[in-house]
Amino acid sequence: MTTPTSSVSGLDHVPGTFRTLWQALDYAAQGQTGVNFYNSETAVYASLTYTELRDRARALAGKLAARFQRGAHIGLIAETSPDFVVSFMACQYAGMIAAPMSLPAAFGRRETYKWQIAKITETAALATVMTSADYRALIEDIVAEQSIPVFDLSGDDLGEATAEPIAFEADEPSYLQFSSGSTSEPKGIFATQQSVMANVHAISDEGLKITGKDRMASWLPFYHDMGLVGFFLVPMCNQCSLDCMSPSTFARRPGLWLRVISENRGTITYSPSFGYGLSARRYRGEELDLSCLRVAGIGGDMIEHDVLARFADVFGPLGFTHNAFVASYGMAEATLAISFVPLNRGPYYDTVGLQDLQTKSRAEAPSDGAQKQRIFTACGVPLSSFDMAIRNADGDAVASREIGEVMLKGPCLAQGYFRAGKGVEPLCDADGWFATGDLGYWLNDEIVITGRSKDLMLWNGKNIWPQDLEWVAQKAAGTQISRAAAFDFRKEDGTSQVMLLAECRVKDNEVREKIRRDIVSAVRDVVGVPFKFVFVMMHSLPVTSSGKLSRSAAKVRYLEGELTDPYADNEDADLPSPKHVSASAG
C-alpha cells in the first residue's frame, strides 16, 4: 500500500528564495516531503518524494538533451500525474521550455479541443508533444499536419541515448503558460526563472506566510497557473508536501478533497468559488475535521459571497473557520498572485448601489434602501513587489471607489507573449506598465475587482455587468440551473440586445416555465434592462481551460445557432434568429 509523504521535511525552511526552479528542487530533495496523487477511492495511487522527483527528472533531462536542442519548446499534456511533474522539471534541468497543455473537457466539444491544441502547437513552435497513452491517438491526429513527433509523457519511448543536459540559469526562461481564453488565438505567456521565483517568494513569504509545518492540498489542473504555480511550484519551493487529485476526480467526488485535507492535516488549499459550492452541496454527513485548514484561498474567478457563507455554515461544525477564507487576485501574466487579503481576517464584502455602478462607474454605498445592490469582495493589498494603478479611459488615476482599469508593474510580470515567427512580444508599455484588462476600484488600500472590460455591456448609457444577470438568475432558480451566461450583441437594426442563457437540469415543461418566470422577474427587478432569456442544454455553455465560463465563446456559439432552447421558446419571438446576426457584431 502506498503511503503519503511526510509533512515534515527535516530541512531548514526556505520560503522560495532560490534563483531557479531546479535549484529549489535540488534543495527540497534533501528532505522527506513530496507529491502524492489520489484516486477516486481516496487512495494514494502514487507518491513521489522530492528526491525521487529530482532523480527521475534528471534522468529524463538527459534523454531530452540527446534528442532536442537546448531551448526547444516541449508541449506537455498536463495530466495530474507523476509523469507530468517529472517531465516539467526535466525541462528545467535540460534547459528546455515546457508548455503545459490542457486535457479534453469531460463535456466539451472535441473539435474545439482539437482546434485549441493545433493552434497552441503552431503558436508555441513546439518541437514535440508529450502525452500519456490515454490521449496519444488524439494528439497524434491533431499534430499530424504539422509533422510534430509525439512521445509518451514518461519519456520511455525517447530511446536510450542520453546527453549532458544544461539547466536553465537565473536569467533564462522557464515555461510557456497558455492563457485560458478559448475564442481568440491562444497566448503563450513567456515566464522566466526570475519572474517565477519572484512571485513564488512573494506568495510564500508575504501572501500566505508558508512555514515548514504547512501541508498543501489541491484539485486544480496543472495546465492552469493557479494549479501549476500555486500547487506544484510553491509547495516544492517551500519543501512542503502536496496532496493532489485531478479536476475530474474532484468533480465526481468533491468530498475527497476535504477528506484528504482532514486525514493528512492539510493547512493550505485553494479553489474558485464553485469548488466550495460544489463541496457544500454534495456533503452527506461524512466525518471530517477541518480545524487544521488555516488558508482556504479563493481565486480564479469572481468571488461569490453567498457560496462562501454556505460552505462555512456546512463545515463550521466540523472545525472550519470562516476567517480561513483568503480572497486574492491574480493572473498568469503576473506568474500567479497579485494581492491577498490579510490572513485570519476572512473576506470583506462591499455592498454598493447598482444605479451608481451602472450610470456613474462608481462603487458607492446605496443611497437609500430602495436602490438595488451589488456585493463585491475585497481582494486585499497588492504584494509589495507590485506597483498597481487604477486608471480611467483618459489614463488618469481614479479616485477612491471610482472604477477603472487595473495596471501593474513589477518583477513578477512575465517577459511577454510568445508567438512563433515573432518571438516574445512585450507585455508592458515603454514605462513598464501592463494593462490587465480587469476593471476595479480602490477600497481604502485594497483592490476590488468588478469584472473584465471585454465582458462589460452597455445599454442606454448604463454599464451592465454580466455577473449581475447570471448571479440573480442562479439565485432565483437555485440548483435547478447549472450555469448562466450573459452577453450582448448588435442586432440587424443597429440596436443592442442583451442575452441571458442558462443550463437547466429540469426536463418537465411546467416546471421549466415556472423557473423561466422566476428568473425573468428577478433579473428585470434587480438589473432593470430588457433582455432575452433562453434555456440551453446542460454542459453546453463553453468554459475555459481553467473551468471558468467563457462568455465570448458562448456569444459566438449562440450567434452561430449552436446554443438553442431544446424546448419551445415563444418569448421575444420578434427577435431575429441568431443565425442571421453577425458573430462579430457587438
UniProtKB/TrEMBL annotation:
The keyword Ligase is assigned to this record: yes
Every AMP-dependent synthetase/ligase domain range: 44-418
Region (Disordered): 566-586
UniProt-listed Gene3D superfamilies: 3.30.300.30, N-terminal domain of ligase-like
Pfam families from the UniProt entry: AMP-binding (PF00501)
Gene Ontology molecular functions: ligase activity
Keyword Glycoprotein attributed: no
InterPro entries for this protein: AMP-bd_C_sf, AMP-binding_CS, AMP-dep_synth/lig_dom, ANL_N_sf
Keywords: Ligase
Family: Belongs to the ATP-dependent AMP-binding enzyme family.
Protein known as: Fatty acyl-AMP ligase
Biological source species: Roseovarius rhodophyticola
Lineage: Bacteria, Pseudomonadati, Pseudomonadota, Alphaproteobacteria, Rhodobacterales
